Input
Amino acid sequence: MMIKSHPGEGLLYQYASGDLSAAMTLVVGTHIDMCKACRQTVCEIEQKLCEENLDTLVSVASTTMSKSQCDQMLEAIFASSACNKQAHQPNEILSLEGRRFTLPRTLAHNSHRIGEWSKLVGKLWRAPLTLDNGNQTNLIYMAPGAKLPEHTHKGKEATLVIDGVFNDEQSEYRDGDFILLDPSRTHTPETQDEDCLTLATLDAPLHFTSGISRLLNPFSQLFFR
Amino acid sequence: MQMVSERTSNRGSMATTQTDAAEKAAELLAKIAENRNRAAFSELFRLFAPKLQSYATRQFGNEQTAMDLVQETMTNVWHKAHLFKPDRGSPSTWIFTIARNIRFDLLRKNKKRKDDISADELWPILSEQNDSLDDGYALDHDVLMQEISFYYAQLPDAQRVVIEKIYIEGKSQQEVSDALGVPLGTIKSRTRLALKKLKELIVDDD
Output
């Protein structure tokens, strides 16, 4: 199945350079897990960033490490023990309403951060993700035949379809589709015969400005109060 | 420490220098992974610590934080060298992504609460779990060999030989490594660089 809606190149750049918020990094990273084309692009961007930031040695003469600093640091590194902080075991299965979903890699690595599911109006469920202060990131599950009232957005929002399909007036979104909201647009997301699991965050960086107009819009922030 | 960056007006020889440097770094990483070779690590450290320091100084504008980034990045390289995959990218790109992750965490450290997410959870590049993705530089199957042969004649000899053995003779990378007496990691990085170069040649020609 072809993924038709992708993060813009500017967003992929910020992802690769580590300049997005944790929440946006998670959503973009999960899209990349599902999308071979974007994975390839990110590989190329990382290589380019490396060439610009690491391979091209800009001389910062005053801060060059001395020989003794080097030796000291090497000693410290050899003396260090492998960092064995027990990472949470990735869990790629999510069960909900009698359905089993397979989570993409980045999301599976963060499965321990998925909170309790709660039922919202209509045929909608959501579970918050604990990422850091102040972000509003949620898994949202729409049962078949779910529909949201028409609404607008105050801020930017990214939504990724993990599994299933939903549509609004503009288009239909399926597995892997990444949608960045335009604050001015109104729309009415709904599911038809199939259900839909999405990952959505309101925590968008303030500074991306270009190439985004082609992206469309799904959920209301009435979910995130 | 000598800090003169190698520059030359001749792009061809610069590319060769970079390729050689990448192969050297890949060999050092392989030695570190194999037997915790301190001499190999020291050499790798001298190659990368000044570059990391320069990157970090520009990022943080703070010498102490910059040194923390160098130390934490190279500590990860020392313990995780076995996770470097020569067919996925160059050694410096791998090290850069580790530094990128350390930077992400250092930037958030002040605001950090106990349960905050860390870069390793977001970019699981240092995860021991073998959840490999089927990425890499694979050429489209519908690109005909005849078309390719025109382009691959333009590859540097060392890369062309590897490509011929793998794509024409159908040898595995291990077999090519044995046949040429060159480490497997070098074969993998040559394959990757050659495919990348071919892709560039083909795209440029469009």
The CA atoms of residues 153 and 183 of chain A lie 5 Å apart. The two ends of chain A are 34 Å apart (CA to CA). The mean pLDDT of chain A is 80.
